Each structure stands twice: as structure tokens, then as C-alpha cells.
Amino acid sequence: MILKRLSVLNYKNLEQVELTFSTKLNCFFGQNGMGKTNMLDAVYYLSFCKSAGNPIDSQNIRHEAVFFCDSGFL
């Protein structure tokens, strides 16, 4: 299966992000602290229903938010 789109809300330092992926090659780049690793962790969460770095769901919610939502479209 190929992930076509990812939607993330209040996950770690990501407030609201929607990405559409290419079927060929996708790259994440940016400055430190921008959320590149958290986007990859959101994909991991979709696959395994847990964070790669923190298995406690309540600690993955962005500060001052009450929930997070992570959804993908194949």
C-alpha cells in the first residue's frame, strides 16, 4: 500500500498539517525543531497505533490541546 495523503492535528509540535505524497519520491527538509521527525512518527503511529519514541498517547498531544488526530489515505 502507498500512503497518498496524511492529515495531522495537534500531534507533538504539529498544530495542523496536511500532506499529499508523490508516488515516486518524497523528502522532508527544514530547520531543526520544525517537525520533520514528528511527521515521520505520525506515519509510524498510523501503522502501529503507537509512537516510535513515546508509547504514552497523552504525552504526544501538542501543548495546550486536548486531543490529537492522525489520519492517512491510501
TrEMBL record:
Signal peptide: none annotated. InterPro entries: P-loop_NTPase (IPR027417), RecF/RecN/SMC_N (IPR003395). Residues 3-48 form the RecF/RecN/SMC N-terminal domain. One of its GO terms (biological process) is double-strand break repair. SUPFAM superfamilies: P-loop containing nucleoside triphosphate hydrolases. This is Recombination protein F.
